[in-house]
């Protein structure tokens, strides 16, 4: 076994024309629900729908869709002439089987009130239990990608990725590397770059060095500190886009510490968002004055002013809520000190750093914070057990290009793992319910604003900073597009600049 | 001009301290020269001065003229280090002390002889190999019966001490060094082995070679003949023909040295009489080691004031028997019965190699202080004892390595006597000492037995010594035992 | 028999040769070592007292201030005084390293000596145990111990010590076995001294130089180990200043402020260097 | 005939060690991973789906799928029984057979270990030269260098090397895998730490050999310079150095963990850390077992090397 392992790992040399993509995400498995986002971003696999840069849902494997009058029956027209990498034609039966599997799996389709999924001729039909307007957006999520039947073993486990995208997998070394070649029979026509690779590089410092050395052509998720240095490099082009993703503090509003909205507001005022954005995130624009980032279209309220740091007001609010400074400078109420444990995780390297800054900032108003850097799952399990006090994390509102799905999960009547805890608002619940039914944008807007305002006033979670995606691309590449919804790296629009 | 080595007014200093004072000597072919003296007399330093291998910090003054046939004489002390080292092996051959430590443990003896031919003399591998086998043959290292592996292909750890010494001689032969310097060549060897090494050295010196031997062993000096120089305290007391020195020593110390040979000791008046008292009894003792029976069914009785010697060739189990009687080792069969009231503390032991019996990092004073704290004797007691043993109190301030072996063995005796022992095991306790020190220690022991009723268990291979000292002799042989 | 009491050149020759044979660690190197140790430990012990700046006090708008300003060694990415953090970090790190090393050395050496002393099945069992532990990845052991009480110092030290003691066990067993065979041990026993005396007066002093050298390396291994653990977020919790975790914290800024990353390493280097110089750098 | 039986004992001893290691690893991993705080189902779900898609729902389905609600003793018995059949099971996170995953990772790790071991051998001649002139400037210099290398965490060292060789010199790719160029930087990072150790050990060994009676005698025999060191210095100095290589192997296996993640190298250490974090017990067991058995194997080779170098070890002991 030793010898086999030794020689099996020697790989074939790579051609000079390969596009090397580097990102931080490791592929933990081959299942769509686990590593599907890498396959869709690298355009190996495709979903029925996609989203444009404004978040509008656009056709991909489905060319058109309509919903019945009662809103319970959806019909998707599949693209014609599509075949998988192994030559098998794409049929509605295959798609139906794939989506049924996705619905039973761990992906987002679980949240959709599906009654039945079936093929009708070249059409795919999805019947719902109740009205669910954002369905097409859910079909853009990576967990609903469509694989060929030959991808599965006899036991029904995915063993290889045979899909419909413009690139097909040549070799795959889990969890780090994909090597791709062009799919010559892609339905979208011929793409310019004939081979590509994806390498997962966990350390941000290493990713920056790979961009600088020319080893990587397209590098995603640069660390804030790296961006400035890389943007000065004449061989590189850097771009930073704000994502529909927010770094926030989750508070247990059901606990004695945070049940008072004045305390939550005081916490918000005690944060130095501008300072953190500038010094830690190196980007003044990401200081979050509301939960929804500018990338979230109508959800975002561009009229809102930045939240300035106001320690006096924060102290006043805390005093109103009955918190008095003790001898050691820590606030006290009924003899209990204001001590709180802040849970965060290090998958996103900036989180422990922000937690440390927040710790120092809250200390200035007399709140003693203990930072625990653990595993992201601890937030979920402590939420379940009701023992969570405070957590810092980044929440992605565009797992499905329509934030509604996420909001329903996070701010429903019971709250959610990555949202409210011990807090609920009747008006907001009704707005969320209505948004599931309404499809007209003009009628959606006021509801969306109402939700935003409620969250802004009640602060079940405190927005800290919006997330950004920093990308470095080689200047030899043309046509780089950065998708704020992170659905695709748009490799198909890339081409090498003419040979020097 | 024929081969010779002339030492003129050689002095050796360590900083301001004069260690060797103004020595002049001449070595000529056919006449072995032996330097006789106790350890610390400076005889080894003389040899290292010739070799050019004095330890750092020691400087040699005077002149050492080496005359090789057909070449102008060269003064060694004035040669640069590199040129002196070029003489090593080719001209100056050194036989090391304790050759079992001086042979490379990872190479067979044939390889070690062969490399001299190959690397030093530049022969081809095949020639070197053949010559190496010849060399080994010449020192009588060959297989009388076919053995596996053959002697030449064995590693040093598979050879006896005498064989190792002969391998070292074969190496000196190989290099063809015309000046052979032998440093305590019989240290740690028993009589039979000593004789064979002496014979080998004489054979070497018979040809066109110079032989300088450093030893404290009178028997060896006698066997080598030639010229003997007696050294003491860094001075060369006299240089005389061997016969003359042995019969009519001029210098007082030389006389003492000769008289210190156990064979010449005055016959001891037995102080012990069988009173029927009993200290310790061994009944039916047997011991096996490595599947070999050392002795079996041995009966032995020790009485107060009695000197019992255990004797026999090396490896026969003398020391093992001593240790069993002291309770340091278990017997495989039989038992050791102590008289009532005899405690372990009253059984003490002197070791063969005095430095190894002292912790190297503690000064003697520290050792005695610890002992005092443990057993609470008075300072006076110690002072009297030291004086009795001829030890100056200032020696206490030193580390064990910084005093001579004879002194250290007396320190060990002092240490043991402070506990008022009733039985003392002297395990080859004087075999590494020069004759004068040996006699000193042995006479002291004899006196103590007489005065204090101390029982002495003497382990020794020296028949002459045993004959002079013992009231009772246990003689072990390779197989079985004769009492 | 009447022997003369002499202090002859005979003994002088022994003294002189003993002097020449003993390898003397060079005097200046030892002095330099003590000097360095004084400076480094002085900085760690007194620094936190003397430096008034609060090591946790952030000033985000004064982040990464250069050398020589108000804070002497500049500020870290949160605008905290590097000097203050280094002093507090050195204090904590050296303490943790010392604690870890003690936790590794004491059982390691004692078990090593016990194994060599008792021999037999006990020695076999201990050697097997040590072999087992060596065959387990140290990181696993550390992670396992830490996971029981994340963020606390004692389990952290314990976990590291669990991986480090084996080396001390092996070395002290091997060396004790050699020493225990020496006749002077038997002689000491016959003179009525107990195991305590032999351990304290004979074994430990003989083992000490080797152990000091090993221990100084173990201290740096412990601090570096803590930094490795911090790199996977299981080390010391923020905002505690600790040299290893400071390296991790400052690493992303290596391009902008390379000196900041190297300063904590420099302190570790100086500490180990000082200890090595003092121990004479002799392993065998 | 004497030798072969000795070899038998050695092999038997190491085989016994291997079995004990397996048993210990199996039990320890199981016991500790289960007694650790934190809900394994939650951890596994987070490992599988990432924080974004991790939810209570996902964790509950993992719990059911893996039978984590079964009694512990039952799970333990099953784990040991499978281990006895060389069945390491499937990874809880990736769902793939452990053996398959290990084969790929082990291959990469072995290349890395081999390359760093080879590079680290460079420390030995340096140590020998330093030891031959103990106390000289080279000795002092290499000592300071060794301490310096050990005062830097491997990830800092790795980054420094990347910056030097990839950015400043442009000689080597900074990270990734697949070609020998990719192997060099991570191997060098590990090798520097190793070389620092082997340099000091070989220096001490050489200094000791030089003071030995046999080395002095070899000089007195007339051997000089390189011949002397080569014939009587190296082999004897090699005995402690080779014995120390076994200890180094541990360092190698340890260092690999950090170095692999900074260089995005798909080795076994990287896999182990991820498995521990994700509570992927079969994977932890698989990786730790592989590392442990690798350690036993390396020590077997070292035993063999020691016996080959030092004839005394064939007879005594």
Helix-strand blueprint:
The complex is a heterotetramer of chains A (500), B (483), C (284) and D (317).
Chain A: H1 2-8, E1 19-23, H2 32-41, E2 49-51, E3 57-59, E4 62-67, E5 73-78, H3 92-104, E6 114-120, E7 123-128, H4 135-138, E8 167-173, E9 177-182, E10 195-200, H5 204-213, E11 218-220, H6 224-231, E12 236-251, H7 261-270, H8 273-279, H9 311-320, E13 324-325, E14 331-333, E15 336-337, E16 339-345, H10 350-363, E17 368-374, H11 376-385, E18 390-396, H12 404-411, H13 426-437, H14 441-458, E19 461-474, E20 477-478, E21 495-496
Parallel strand pairs in A: 1-10, 1-11, 16-17, 16-18
Antiparallel strand pairs in A: 2-3, 4-5, 5-7, 6-7, 8-9, 9-10, 11-19, 12-18, 12-19, 13-14, 14-15, 20-21
Helix pairs in contact in A: 7-9, 12-13, 13-14
Chain C: H1 9-21, H2 27-50, H3 82-118, H4 120-135, H5 138-148, H6 153-180, H7 183-190, H8 195-231, H9 243-250, H10 258-279
Helix pairs in contact in C: 2-3, 2-10, 3-4, 3-6, 3-8, 3-10, 4-6, 5-6, 6-8, 8-9, 8-10, 9-10
Chain D: H1 2-35, H2 40-53, H3 56-66, H4 72-84, H5 98-120, H6 123-132, H7 137-150, H8 154-168, H9 180-211, H10 213-221, H11 225-262, H12 268-277, H13 281-309, H14 312-315
Explain this structure to me?
The complex is a heterotetramer of chains A (500), B (483), C (284) and D (317). With 500 residues, chain A is an alpha+beta fold. Chain A folds into 3 domains: 156 residues, Periplasmic binding protein-like II (D-Maltodextrin-Binding Protein, domain 2), CATH 3.40.190; 93 residues, Alpha-Beta Complex (Dipeptide-binding Protein, domain 1), CATH 3.90.76.10; 226 residues, Dipeptide-binding Protein, Domain 3 (Dipeptide-binding Protein, domain 3, Roll), CATH 3.10.105.10. Chain A contains 14 helices and 21 strands. Chain A is globular. The two termini of chain A are 47 Å apart. Chain C has a single domain, classed as Orthogonal Bundle (MetI-like fold), CATH 1.10.3720. The longest helix of chain C is centred in the middle third of the chain and has 37 residues. The radius of gyration of chain C is 24 Å and the shape is globular. Chain D starts with a helix and ends with a helix. Chains in contact: A-C, A-D, B-C, B-D, C-D. At the A-D interface, helix 1, helix 5, helix 11 and strand 18 of A face helix 2, helix 3, helix 5 and helix 8 of D.
Supply database-style keywords.
heterotetramer, B: 483 residues, alpha/beta, Rossmann fold, 6-stranded mixed β-sheet, disordered C terminus, D: 317 residues, mainly alpha, MetI-like fold
């Amino acid at each position: 076994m030793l010898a086999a392992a030794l020689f099996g790992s020697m790989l074939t040399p790579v051609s000079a024309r390969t596009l090397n993509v580097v990102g931080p995400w490791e592929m933990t498995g081959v299942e769509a629900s686990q590593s599907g986002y890498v396959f869709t971003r690298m355009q190996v696999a495709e979903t029925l729908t996609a989203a444009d840069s404004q978040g509008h849902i656009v056709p991909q494997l489905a060319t058109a869709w309509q919903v019945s009058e009662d809103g319970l029956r959806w019909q998707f027209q599949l693209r014609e002439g599509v075949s998988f990498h192994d030559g098998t034609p794409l049929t509605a039966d295959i798609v139906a089987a794939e989506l049924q599997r996705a619905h039973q799996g761990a992906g987002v389709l679980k949240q959709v009130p599906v009654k039945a999924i079936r093929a009708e001729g070249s059409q795919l039909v999805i019947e719902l239990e109740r009205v669910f307007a954002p369905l097409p957006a859910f079909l853009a999520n990576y967990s609903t990608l469509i694989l060929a039947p030959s991808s599965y073993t006899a036991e029904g486990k995915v063993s290889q990725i045979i899909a419909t995208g413009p690139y097909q997998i040549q070799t795959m070394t889990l969890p780090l590397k994909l090597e791709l070649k062009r799919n010559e029979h892609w339905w979208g026509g011929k793409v310019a770059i004939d081979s590509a690779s994806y390498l997962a590089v966990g350390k941000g410092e290493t990713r920056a060095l790979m961009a600088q050395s020319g080893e990587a052509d397209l590098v995603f998720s640069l660390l804030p500190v790296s961006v400035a240095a890389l943007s000065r490099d004449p061989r590189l082009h850097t771009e930073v886009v704000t994502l529909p993703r927010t770094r926030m503090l989750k508070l247990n509003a059901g606990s004695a510490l945070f049940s008072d909205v004045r305390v939550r507001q005081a916490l918000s005022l005690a944060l130095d968002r501008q300072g953190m954005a500038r010094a830690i995130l190196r980007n003044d624009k990401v200081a979050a004055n509301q939960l929804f980032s500018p990338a979230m279209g109508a959800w975002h309220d561009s009229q809102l002013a930045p939240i300035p740091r106001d320690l006096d007001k924060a102290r006043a609010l805390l005093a109103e809520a009955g918190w008095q400074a003790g001898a050691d400078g820590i606030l006290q109420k009924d003899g209990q000190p204001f001590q709180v444990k802040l849970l965060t995780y290090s998958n996103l390297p900036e989180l422990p750093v922000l937690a440390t800054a927040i710790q120092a900032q809250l200390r200035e108003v007399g709140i003693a914070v203990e930072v625990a850097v653990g595993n992201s799952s601890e937030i979920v399990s402590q939420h379940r057990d009701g023992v969570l006090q405070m957590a810092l994390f980044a929440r992605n509102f565009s797992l499905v290009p329509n934030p509604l799905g996420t909001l329903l999960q996070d701010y429903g009547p019971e709250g959610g793992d990555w949202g409210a805890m011990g807090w609920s608002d009747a008006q907001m619940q009704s707005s969320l319910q209505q948004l599931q039914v309404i499809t007209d944008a003009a009628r959606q807007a006021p509801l969306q604003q109402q939700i935003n305002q409620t969250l802004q006033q009640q602060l079940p979670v405190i927005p800290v900073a919006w997330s950004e995606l920093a990308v470095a691309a080689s200047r030899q590449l043309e046509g780089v597009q950065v998708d704020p919804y992170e659905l695709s790296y748009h490799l198909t629009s890339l081409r090498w600049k003419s040979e020097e | 001009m024929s081969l010779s080595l002339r030492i003129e007014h050689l002095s050796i200093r360590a900083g301001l301290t004069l260690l060797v004072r103004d020595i002049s000597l001449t070595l000529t072919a056919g006449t072995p020269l032996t330097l006789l003296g106790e350890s610390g007399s400076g005889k080894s330093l003389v040899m290292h001065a010739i070799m050019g291998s004095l330890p750092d910090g020691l400087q040699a003054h005077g002149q050492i003229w080496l005359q090789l046939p057909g070449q102008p004489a060269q003064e060694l002390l004035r040669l640069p280090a590199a040129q002196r080292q070029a003489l090593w092996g080719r001209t100056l051959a050194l036989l090391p002390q304790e050759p079992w430590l001086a042979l490379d443990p990872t190479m067979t003896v044939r390889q070690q002889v062969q490399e001299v031919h190959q690397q030093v003399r530049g022969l081809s591998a095949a020639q070197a190999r053949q010559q190496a086998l010849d060399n080994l043959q010449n020192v009588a290292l060959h297989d009388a019966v076919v053995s596996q592996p053959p002697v030449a292909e064995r590693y040093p750890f598979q050879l006896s001490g005498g064989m190792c010494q002969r391998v070292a001689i074969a190496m000196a032969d190989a290099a063809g060094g015309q000046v052979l310097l032998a440093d305590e060549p019989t240290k740690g060897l028993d009589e039979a082995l000593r004789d064979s090494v002496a014979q080998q050295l004489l054979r070497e010196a018979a040809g066109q070679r110079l032989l300088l031997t450093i030893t404290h062993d009178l028997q060896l000096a006698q066997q080598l003949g030639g010229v003997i120089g007696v050294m003491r305290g860094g001075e060369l007391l006299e240089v005389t023909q061997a016969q003359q020195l042995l019969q009519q020593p001029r210098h007082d110390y030389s006389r003492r040295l000769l008289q210190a040979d156990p064979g010449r000791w005055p016959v001891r008046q037995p102080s012990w009489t069988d009173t029927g008292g009993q200290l310790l009894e061994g009944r039916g003792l047997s011991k096996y080691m490595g599947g070999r029976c050392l002795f079996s069914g041995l009966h032995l009785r020790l009485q107060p004031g009695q000197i019992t010697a255990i004797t026999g060739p090396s490896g026969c189990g003398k020391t093992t028997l001593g240790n069993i009687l002291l309770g340091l080792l278990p017997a495989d069969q039989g038992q050791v019965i102590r008289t009532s009231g005899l405690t372990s503390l009253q059984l003490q032991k002197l070791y063969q190699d005095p430095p190894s019996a002292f912790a190297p990092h503690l000064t003697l004073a520290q050792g005695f202080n610890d002992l005092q704290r443990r057993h609470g004797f008075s300072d006076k007691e110690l002072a009297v004892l030291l004086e009795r043993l001829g030890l100056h109190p200032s020696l206490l301030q030193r580390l064990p390595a910084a005093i001579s072996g004879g002194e250290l063995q007396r320190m060990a005796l002092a240490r043991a006597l402070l506990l008022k022992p009733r039985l003392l095991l002297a395990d080859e306790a004087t075999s590494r000492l020069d004759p004068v020190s040996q006699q000193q220690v042995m006479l002291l022991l004899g006196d103590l037995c007489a005065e204090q009723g101390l029982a002495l268990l003497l382990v020794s291979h020296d028949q002459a010594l045993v004959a002079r000292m013992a009231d009772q002799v246990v003689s072990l042989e390779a197989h079985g035992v004769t009492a | 028999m009447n022997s003369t009491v002499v202090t002859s050149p005979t003994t002088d020759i022994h003294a002189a040769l003993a002097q020449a044979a003993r390898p003397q660690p060079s005097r200046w190197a030892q002095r330099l070592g003590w000097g360095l140790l004084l400076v480094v430990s002085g900085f760690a012990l007194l620094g936190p007292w003397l430096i008034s700046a609060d090591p946790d006090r952030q000033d985000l708008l004064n982040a990464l201030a250069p050398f020589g300003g108000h804070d002497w060694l500049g500020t870290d990415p949160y605008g905290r005084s590097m000097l203050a953090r280094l002093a507090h970090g050195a204090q904590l790190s050296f303490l943790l390293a010392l604690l870890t090393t003690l936790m590794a050395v004491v059982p390691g050496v004692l078990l090593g000596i016990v194994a060599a002393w008792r021999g037999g099945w006990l020695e076999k069992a201990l050697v097997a145990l040590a072999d087992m532990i060596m065959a387990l990845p140290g990181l696993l052991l550390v992670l396992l111990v830490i996971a029981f009480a994340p963020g606390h110092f004692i389990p952290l030290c314990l976990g590291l010590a669990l991986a480090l003691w084996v080396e001390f066990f092996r070395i002290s067993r091997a060396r004790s076995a050699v020493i225990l065979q020496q006749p002077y041990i038997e002689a000491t026993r016959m003179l009525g001294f107990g195991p305590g005396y032999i351990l304290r007066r004979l074994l430990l002093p003989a083992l000490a130089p080797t152990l000091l050298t090993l221990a100084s390396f173990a201290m740096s291994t412990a601090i570096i180990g803590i930094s490795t653990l911090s790199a996977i977020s299981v080390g010391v919790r923020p905002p505690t200043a600790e040299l290893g975790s400071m390296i991790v914290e400052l690493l992303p800024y290596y391009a902008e402020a390379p000196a900041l990353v190297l300063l904590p390493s420099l302190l570790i280097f100086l500490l180990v260097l000082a200890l090595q110089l003092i121990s004479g750098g002799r392993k065998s | 005939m004497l030798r072969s039986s000795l070899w038998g004992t050695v092999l038997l001893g190491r085989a016994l060690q291997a079995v004990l290691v397996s048993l210990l690893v199996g039990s320890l991993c199981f016991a500790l991973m289960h007694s650790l705080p934190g809900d394994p189902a939650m951890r596994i779900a987070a490992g599988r789906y990432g924080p974004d898609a991790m939810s209570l729902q996902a964790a509950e389905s993992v719990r059911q799928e893996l039978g984590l609600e079964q009694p512990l003793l039952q799970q333990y018995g099953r784990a040991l029984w499978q281990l006895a059949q060389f069945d390491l099971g499937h990874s809880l996170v990736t769902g793939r057979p452990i053996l398959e995953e290990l084969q790929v990772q082990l291959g990469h790790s072995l290349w890395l270990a081999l390359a760093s071991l080879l590079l680290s051998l460079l420390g030995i001649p340096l140590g020998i030269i330093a030891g031959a002139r103990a106390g000289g400037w080279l000795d002092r210099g290499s000592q300071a260098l060794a301490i310096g290398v050990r005062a830097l965490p491997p990830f800092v060292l790795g980054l420094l090397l990347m910056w030097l060789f990839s950015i400043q010199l442009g000689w080597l790719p900074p990270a990734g895998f697949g070609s020998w160029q990719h192997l060099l930087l991570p191997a060098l990072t590990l090798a520097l730490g190793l070389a620092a150790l082997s340099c000091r050990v070989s220096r001490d060994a050489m200094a000791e050999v030089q003071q030995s009676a046999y080395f002095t005698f070899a000089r007195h025999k007339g051997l000089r310079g390189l011949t002397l060191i080569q014939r009587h210095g190296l082999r004897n100095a090699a005995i402690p150095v080779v014995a120390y290589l076994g200890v180094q192997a541990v360092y190698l296996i340890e260092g690999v963990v950090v170095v692999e993640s900074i260089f995005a190298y798909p080795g076994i250490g990287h896999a182990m850390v991820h498995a521990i974090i994700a509570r992927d017990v079969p994977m932890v067991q698989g990786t730790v077992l592989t590392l442990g058995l690798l350690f036993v194997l390396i020590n077997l080779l070292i035993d063999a090397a020691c016996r080959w170098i030092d004839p005394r070890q064939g007879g005594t002991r």
